[in-house]
Amino acid sequence: MTDPADPAPGRTPSPGCPAHAGAVRLSGLEYQQTPAQLYRAMRREHGAVAPVLLDGDIPAWLVLGYAEVGYVTSHDDLFARDSRRWNQWSDIPDDWPLMPFVGYQPSVMFTEGAEHQRRAGVITDALEAVDQFELAHTCGEIAEGLIGRFAGSGRTELIADYAHALPLRAAIHLCGVAADSTDADALVRDLRITLDTAPDEDQVAAYQRLAERVGRLIEDKRERPGPDVTSRMLAHPAGLTDEEVRADLIAILSAVQQQTSNWISNGLRLLLTDDRFALDVSGGRLSVGQALNEVLWLDTPLQNFTGRWAVRDTQLGGKRIREGDCLILGLAAANTDPLIWPEGHVGTENSAHLSFGNGEHRCPYPAPLLADVIARTAIETLLERLPDLELSVEPHELIWRTSIWSRGLLALPVRFTPAPR
């Protein structure tokens, strides 16, 4: 296995390229299964900002330091969000695997300045009007329905059957899609394929179908508005076009599903494998909220985020950053930065992590609260219905997904005493 500190073989970077000697490939089994070890090695070798190679040996910077990530995300004048600034586009093919993450799209994700404030303001207002108690009730009903499908069997695989399915259905409910509508199951299926495609599935075709279905949803809500996020976005005085609403709704759906599902699964893994969260003498479990907060520090669902692009030549973490360079926000590495935890113990009692971002482009204020409602309700309902839930494999047999961006398990097989449906 290649040492993470070794320069990438077969590539001779130009003097102005960040992929100088010692650049680390963000790939490989070791990275996928034990990224924290590589973050430590990269810190020792490079400090708070490390040169890295993305797929196809495309150079970028990985920002590892907590303070440095905070600086980048707080200085939009130096590190902007519009990926069209990237100085590497001439070397990137159209079918580049990371194109969905960095290819410019007309959504709130890539806007800047006043336009970003306008678009983000619409999303914030639309999400802020969500009744959290009503959402918890809805998520409880969704959870009960999903649990009822496997409760009588005594065993199941929680990722596909529960942790991924529940946020998907909660997300489309927030956007105004009735659970019993003909589009509900199709939206769930296409969103899943778009975010987590299998070898025999067409991600591009699924995204096109998703965009068409969201477009039809917008047309319907124009004619028959309701108490949902889509209707509130359409009625907002900022006057977003249907295309803008569609792009931003897809961004909302993707964020709710992908990150919240991994948050749920990582939280369940912690509860099922860590003795601190075992059954206590009264038969109850220690705080689900504590487990969810610990996950955000130590196994954050969004490990790395691409990214920011340098507006002009500058310095960061002792490295020379050139105009147009790509900076990847190492959220997981920053959360475990030894400079903020000098004794090596991560104090999970506070919420100063960077898992929801920071600065102007962080998750809109209500989003983390709503994600917490979804995740907490999902776990608490499951544990109440199946109190003797336990892993059906050894903890070391669990396998993480092969992604440098998200942190989540491939499968979480469990067993339990069969319960009434």
Task: Itemize the secondary structure elements and their pairings.
Blueprint: E1 24-25, H1 29-33, H2 35-46, E2 49-54, E3 58-63, H3 66-74, E4 79-80, H4 99-102, H5 113-128, H6 132-150, E5 155-157, H7 158-163, H8 165-174, H9 182-195, H10 203-223, H11 229-235, H12 242-273, H13 288-298, E6 305-310, E7 314-316, E8 319-321, E9 326-329, H14 331-335, H15 366-385, E10 390-391, E11 413-415
Which properties best describe this structure?
421 residues; alpha+beta; Cytochrome p450; three-stranded antiparallel sheet; 11 strands; globular; disordered N terminus; Cytochrome P450; Cyt_P450_B
Describe the structure.
This protein is α+β, with helices and mostly antiparallel strands and 421 residues long. It has a single domain, classed as Cytochrome p450 (Orthogonal Bundle), CATH 1.10.630.10. Helices cover 45% and strands 10% of the residues. The protein is built from 15 helices and eleven strands. The strands form three sheets. The chain has a six-stranded mixed sheet with strand order 1-2-3-9-6-4. A three-stranded antiparallel sheet has the order 5-11-10. It has a two-stranded antiparallel ribbon with strand order 7-8. A hairpin with a 2-residue loop joins strand 7 and strand 8. Helix 6 runs antiparallel to helix 8, helix 6 packs parallel to helix 15 and helix 8 runs antiparallel to helix 12. The N terminus is likely disordered.
